[in-house]
UniProtKB/TrEMBL annotation:
The chain crosses the membrane at residues 22-40, 60-81, 93-114, 134-159. This is Uncharacterized protein. Keywords: Membrane, Transmembrane, Transmembrane helix.
Length: 165
C-alpha cells in the first residue's frame, strides 16, 4: 500500500469517527428534548391521567431514557478515546468530561430522591413540593447545551482543514 493510500485510509477513519461523534450527541439531544421537555409535561394534561398514574409512567419512561443515555454515552466515550489516532483532547475532552459528570450527578444524586418521592405518591402520601424536579430539569438543560457543544465540535472536525479556519 502506498503512503498516500495509508493517509487516505486514516483520513476516512477519522471522518467516520467524527461523524459518529456527531450523530450520537444529536440523537441524544433529540431524545432528551422530546421526553423531558415535551412528553413529561404534556402527559399530565391528558384526560384521565392522575398524578400517581403520570408519575408511574414517567418513572418507566425516564428509567428507559437513562438506560439509552448511558448506552449512548458509553459508545460516545469509546469513540472519544479509540482509535488512538483520533483521540479527543483539549476543549473536547473537557466537554466530554462535563457531559459525563452531569449524567452521573443526575443518576446518583438527583434520581434517588425523585424515586423516593414517587414511591411516596404511589403509596398515597402527599410529600409536597420538591426541588429535585427543578434540579433534574437543570441537569437536562446542561446536558442539552453540552450535547450542542460536542456536536458542533464534531461537525467542525469533519470539515476540510481549509474550512475550519
Amino acid at each position: 500500500m502506498s503512503p498516500d493510500a495509508g493517509t487516505e485510509a486514516a483520513e476516512r477513519r477519522r471522518i467516520s469517527t467524527e461523524l459518529w461523534r456527531l450523530v450520537l450527541p444529536v440523537l441524544w439531544f433529540g431524545m432528551v428534548a422530546a421526553i423531558s421537555f415535551i412528553e413529561a409535561p404534556l402527559k399530565f394534561q391528558a384526560p384521565g391521567i392522575t398524578i400517581p398514574l403520570g408519575l408511574g409512567i414517567g418513572r418507566l419512561v425516564f428509567a428507559v431514557l437513562n438506560l439509552v443515555e448511558a448506552a449512548i454515552l458509553l459508545v460516545y466515550t469509546l469513540l472519544c478515546f479509540w482509535p488512538a489516532a483520533t483521540r479527543i483532547a483539549g476543549a473536547r475532552l473537557w466537554s466530554w468530561m462535563a457531559l459525563l459528570l452531569v449524567f452521573v450527578f443526575k443518576l446518583t444524586v438527583v434520581r434517588p430522591p425523585l424515586n423516593a418521592r414517587t414511591d411516596l405518591v404511589l403509596q398515597g402520601a402527599d410529600p409536597g413540593q420538591s426541588p429535585w424536579h427543578y434540579v433534574y430539569i437543570v441537569c437536562d438543560l446542561a446536558t442539552l447545551v453540552l450535547l450542542v457543544v460536542v456536536a458542533v465540535s464534531a461537525a467542525r472536525a469533519v470539515l476540510p482543514a481549509k474550512s475550519r479556519r
